[in-house]
Amino acid sequence: xxxxxxxxxxxxxxxxxxxxxxxxxxxxxxxxxxxxxxxxxxxxxxxxxxxxxxxxxxxxxxxxxxxxxxxxxxxxxxxxxxxxxxxxxxxxxxxxxxxxxxxxxxxxxxxxxxxxxxxxxxxxxxxxxxxxxxxxxxxxxxxxxxxxxxxxxxxxxxxxxxxxxxxxxxxxxxxxxxxxxxxxxxxxxxxxxxxxxxxxxxxxxxxxxxxxxxxxxxxxxxxxxxxxxxxxxx
Length: 234
Ligand SMILES: [Zn+2]
What we know:
Residues 219-230 have low confidence and may be disordered. Helix 2 runs antiparallel to helix 3 (74-87) and helix 6 packs across helix 7. The two termini are 51 Å apart. The chain is α/β, with parallel strands linked by helices and 234 residues long. The chain has helices at residues 6-21, 59-69, 74-87, 110-129, 167-172, 175-193, 202-211, and strands at 30-33, 40-42, 48-51, 138-141, 149-154, 160-166, 224-226, 229-233. A hairpin with a 2-residue loop joins strand 7 (224-226) and strand 8 (229-233). The chain binds zinc ion.
């Protein structure tokens, strides 16, 4: 059983003693829950699971709960008891817990940037690489403040895991500069996919000139190995 708050434990205690007064057999263990649906049920081990909110219901409702779960009430009796217990608005006393949706790591506008960058990658691939570069995931990084872009390469095989561009860069600089950053990373991608080392060596400089970007790797940091992946920063 999960850890319950003090308030839940108090409600459980209150509900247990009130249900016993309403006729519940002493041996039946009472558990409380705060689910949005299924107000009353029996567990496989025979315990009674009741919504916490019933701790605040009238005796009439609690008696209905006991009838509902006690064998021998008959189909009509069970249905009648069910109608009574469902008529009590448990959520007025114990509101249902909010369902926690997994928060997306994407921030507003990221999707639009990613879409634009994907299109740009495709266009530059056609224009400069005869569409030979593979489709790679492109992400937007909120952590990159100084670096403009980054390429992540799998360490076990010559494969690009993803290309990331700095969100700050995307927001601040003209699109032409963003294009240069993406091209820079794509030259690294070309290196990886043609079996070359991803660095800023001679092949990099030659290819950079051919695609029309400055071969100088400005704001560059040495390649770092982290999380089993080789990252080449630019
Ligand atoms: Zn670089």
